[in-house]
Amino acid sequence: MADKNEILAGLAEIVNEETGLETEEVQLEKSFTEDLDIDSISMMTIVVNAEEKFDVKIPDEEVKNLSTVGDAVTFIADAKG
């Protein structure tokens, strides 16, 4: 199983590249839309980049369930097995 801290760090880098947010701002309890102010277009880019970086598939219908950074980290960790 992938280490959640490594996934969080990788996800933070992706968010930083897409939005310019500092990587320290990307924390498990943060909401993508409310706390980090990420819109749906940026979110889709982040999802695609995360799929490539972590070699996982995140179905479109799952994306709406990933409201917090922690949700995304858990999903990626579980998908990697």
Q: What key attributes describe this structure?
A:
lipid metabolism, single chain, about 80 residues
Question: Helix and strand layout, with pairings?
Answer:
Blueprint (H helix, E strand, L loop, with lengths): L3 H16 L20 H15 L5 H4 L5 H12 L1
Helix pairs in contact: 1-2, 1-4
Could you please describe the fold and organization of this structure?
By secondary structure, the protein is mainly alpha-helical. The protein contains four helices and no strands. Helix 1 crosses helix 4. It starts with a helix and ends with a helix. 21% of the residues are buried. The mean pLDDT is 96. This is Acyl carrier protein. Pathway: Lipid metabolism; fatty acid biosynthesis. It comes from Nesterenkonia aethiopica. Belongs to the acyl carrier protein (ACP) family.
Nutshell version of this structure?
The protein is mainly alpha-helical. The chain is 58% helix and 0% strand.
Shape estimate:
globular
Number of helices: 4
pLDDT under 50 segments (min length 5)?
none
Series of secondary-structure elements, N-terminal to C-terminal:
HHHH
What is the gyration radius calculated from CA atoms?
A: 11 Å
Structural class: mainly alpha
* Count of DSSP strands: 0
Determine the strand fraction and express it as a percent band.
under 5%
Largest sheet: none
* C-alpha termini separation: 5 Å
Quaternary structure type: single chain
Return the average pLDDT rounded to an integer: 96
| Helix content, binned percent | 55-70%
